[in-house]
Specification:
3 helices, mainly alpha
């Protein structure tokens, strides 16, 4: 995921596609998987410098 993709709101679609891909791969070849797939859920808002943002407020 690039910062540009997050900024333009493309992250949810990409994460959904990745989740679907991993689920299909696990279903097709369960012998390659020892546990769960990755957590591809969106993280929510992200800040680069939270301390500086608190000071500015």
């Amino acid at each position: 995921m690039t910062p540009g993709q997050r900024h333009h709101g493309e992250d949810n679609v990409l994460l959904k596609q990745r989740d679907d891909l991993y689920r299909m791969a696990k279903q097709a070849h369960p012998e390659h998987w020892s546990g769960r797939t990755r957590n591809w859920q969106p993280e929510g808002p992200v800040t680069l410098n939270p301390e500086q943002e608190k000071q500015a407020a």
